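Bump. Still looking for G10 protein structure tokens.
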Amino acid sequence: MPKIKTGRVNYPDGWELIEPTLHDLEAKMRQAENDPNDGKRNCEALWPIFHISHQKSRYIYDLYYKRQEISRELYEFCLEQGYADANLIAKWKKPGYERLCCLRCIQTRDHNFGTTCMCRVPKHLREENKVIECVHCGCTGCASGD
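Sorry for the wait, here they are.
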């Protein structure tokens, strides 16, 4: 017999410590989704959403892996409930991807010549005095060597 879904969620211990920050980020996300995008390109309208999603994932990643302030149970709960992007966090754990802004920047199918995004090029290898913004997420540089 299938489980009956109820509206109740059992929050693990420590949830009350991260709940205010996650609710603030959720409110920012709702505001970014509802903002009018008049005068912007289609891709630019999505940049704030990518930034907030990255911020939520980085917050949970730092609490668990860097500062070790939350339990594994709470970390997995946040991933299961969609508060953080599990695939992006998995990439952050690999060498060379510690500062990755979004997963679209490393997908070769989305770029010319089967390469990665320009924001993945280290700053010392770029042309002088040229500001580069990623078309997908608005990142100006997420190479780990910067």
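DSSP finds four helices and no strands in the chain.

Edit: fixed formatting.
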